Structures are given as structure tokens and as C-alpha cells.
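quick q for whoever's on today - can somebody do inverse folding on this one?? i tried earlier but teh output was garbage lol. C-alpha cells:
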């Protein structure tokens, strides 16, 4: 299997070389592609020192989604069978890619393989796949739990895959499309995972593929960025992907959750970022409604299957929402 690894980069000079070195030392051969989103630091200079790395320079910052799409298009145009995505602040164990490829090769109906993504301290988990809930809220499975107390030892199906260290089948990408560039950053991996599931592609987690992540090394530098992206992208996932048979129930829960999170963010001084995010969603709504029609028309899975992969609960850290649910629904709504 011919594999390309795409690294999107924006001013990632601090960790980029360490990330590249871990990929250059992989036990499975691959083409490494760095897509630079118009960095102003020494990132490009660092990449050019690595002669075996392909550099693609964007003239502007296209975000995570636009950045990886640039690399994915290059890979598809050059006949690669699979494309791995890797964060510029991540470090892979030597057999990370080999383990991902093995599972993808052994499971022909699978479109995406995700790894055991640990935090850089190697004690805590970043993600073992992504979860989408009946409240319309996604979250990374097992985040912040101790590696030593989380017994993930088997290959298993998950709802979604982290875009920071996962492998995507090229034929699937040609069929369902690439990452939605209107997401820019945050939750674009949830969106493409949802689309993959609707198209009939399974997503698997393998514990044998291990990588380490310095979470938020790029986005944490931008004030209000995560808040803006969250309030824009949360409803985009819902509008595009949740089928009619499940839409009303999830929409009602989501509306409660969205308002609650909006109020909480505003009280923390993020009203402007949250409001701008919501406003951008409103502007994108007509476009996404058209995309929804195409996605739902080509869906091959039924409600019964979706109910097995959508978690009927709130994210673990939604403590205030849990209190609200208990008081105002008398424990009836899960």
C-alpha cells in the first residue's frame, strides 16, 4: 500500500523537526508532505533541510482543513492508496504507520483507522477516537484519562477518528469528498467521520499504533479562536449529517446545550467570539443545507446502525448540563 503522510503547519517551528524526525524513522515507507499555511517563523527553512520531505507552500492560511486538503489532493493526484494526517506538534512511535496500514489492509470495508493518541507526558490520553452524542456534542474518547488505567487492548469500531494522527483510504476520500474547508479548524474530523459512516465506511481504533500530542500548540496562541470555531462548527455538523429520522430529538437537546455553552462562554468574557461564530454559521446555513441534501441522499446506513455509534449521553465534562438535565427533565432525558 502506497502511503502519504500530510502535516499541516502554521508557525510550528518549535516542534516541527521532532515531528518530522519521528516520521522519517517510520518502519513503513511513506511520502512525507508538509503543507505550510503561510508561516511567518522558520518552519519552511526547517522543512527544506529535510531533503526527503515534500514541501507545499500555501500563500495564505487555509486552516487545518484547507491545509490537509492541499496535501491530500497532491497524494490523490500521485496515486497514493492511503493518506495519513499528522499534527505538526505530534510524535509517532516507530511502527505507528505500519500498525495503521496493517489494520486498513485487513479490513476492506473500513475507510479510516485511528490510533492510540497519548499526550506528550505519555501518562494521559489525548484520544482513542472521537465520539458524537445524542446532544449533538462531539468529544475525544478517553481524553485526560490515565494510560495505565485505560485498558484499550483490541481493535474496535469508533464513531470518528482524530485528524491529528489517523489514516484515510484514498478511494473513500474520492467518494465522499475531502475535509470541509468552511470548518477551517476544529471538528472537521468529526464531520468527515460522520460522512464516512453515512457512506457505509467503518472507522476502527487500533491500540498498537501510538503517537504523542502536544495539544493546541498552534491554535492556543490565538485569543478567542477556539470559541469562535466551536460555535460555528458545532451546528454545521448537525445540519449536514444528522439524518431526518434522528434530527428532531438531537436538535432539541443540541439547542439546550448550545445556549447553555453560549451563556457560559459569555460569562467568561468570550461573548464576541461566540456570537461571531454563531453568525458565521447562520451565513453558511444555506450552503450547508444544499450539501446536506447530497449527503443524506447518498447515505446507505439506517437509523438502527447510527444508534449503535452515536453515544446517548453528554460529554464527561458537561457538568452544568448534567445538572440542568437532572433538574428540568426529572431524569427522563438522557
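ok took a stab at it. sequence:
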Amino acid at each position: 500500500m502506497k502511503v502519504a503522510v500530510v502535516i499541516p503547519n502554521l508557525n510550528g517551528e518549535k516542534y516541527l523537526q521532532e515531528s518530522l524526525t519521528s516520521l522519517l524513522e517510520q518502519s513503513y515507507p511513506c511520502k512525507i508532505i508538509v503543507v505550510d499555511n503561510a508561516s511567518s517563523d522558520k518552519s519552511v527553512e526547517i522543512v527544506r533541510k529535510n531533503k526527503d520531505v515534500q514541501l507545499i507552500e500555501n500563500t495564505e492560511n487555509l486552516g487545518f482543513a484547507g491545509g490537509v486538503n492541499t496535501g491530500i489532493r497532491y497524494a490523490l493526484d500521485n496515486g497514493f492508496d492511503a493518506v495519513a494526517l499528522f499534527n505538526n506538534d505530534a510524535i509517532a512511535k516507530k511502527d505507528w504507520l505500519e500498525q495503521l496500514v496493517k489494520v486498513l489492509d485487513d479490513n476492506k470495508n473500513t475507510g479510516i483507522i485511528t490510533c492510540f493518541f497519548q499526550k506528550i507526558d505519555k501518562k494521559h490520553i489525548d484520544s482513542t477516537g472521537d465520539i458524537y452524542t445524542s446532544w449533538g456534542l462531539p468529544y475525544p474518547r478517553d481524553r485526560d484519562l490515565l494510560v495505565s488505567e485505560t485498558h484499550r487492548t483490541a481493535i474496535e469500531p469508533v464513531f470518528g477518528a482524530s485528524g491529528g494522527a489517523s489514516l484515510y483510504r484514498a478511494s473513500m476520500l474520492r467518494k465522499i469528498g475531502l475535509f470541509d474547508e468552511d470548518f477551517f479548524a476544529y471538528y472537521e474530523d468529526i464531520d468527515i467521520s460522520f460522512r464516512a459512516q453515512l457512506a457505509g465506511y467503518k472507522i476502527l481504533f487500533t491500540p498498537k499504533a501510538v503517537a504523542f500530542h502536544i495539544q493546541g500548540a498552534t491554535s492556543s496562541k490565538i485569543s478567542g479562536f477556539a470559541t469562535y470555531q466551536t460555535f460555528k462548527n458545532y451546528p454545521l455538523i448537525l445540519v449536514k449529517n444528522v439524518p431526518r429520522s434522528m434530527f428532531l430529538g438531537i436538535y432539541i437537546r443540541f439547542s439546550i446545550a448550545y445556549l447553555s455553552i453560549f451563556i457560559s462562554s459569555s460569562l467568561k468574557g468570550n461573548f464576541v467570539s461566540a456570537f461571531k461564530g454563531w453568525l458565521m454559521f447562520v451565513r453558511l446555513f444555506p450552503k450547508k443545507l444544499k450539501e446536506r441534501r447530497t449527503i443524506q441522499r447518498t447515505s446507505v446506513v439506517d437509523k438502527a446502525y447510527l444508534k449503535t455509534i452515536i453515544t446517548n449521553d453528554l460529554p464527561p465534562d458537561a457538568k452544568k448540563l448534567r445538572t440542568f438535565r437532572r433538574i428540568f427533565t426529572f431524569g427522563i432525558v438522557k
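fwiw The longest helix spans residues 244-297. also The chain has two domains: 3-221, 225-328. so keep that in mind when u check it
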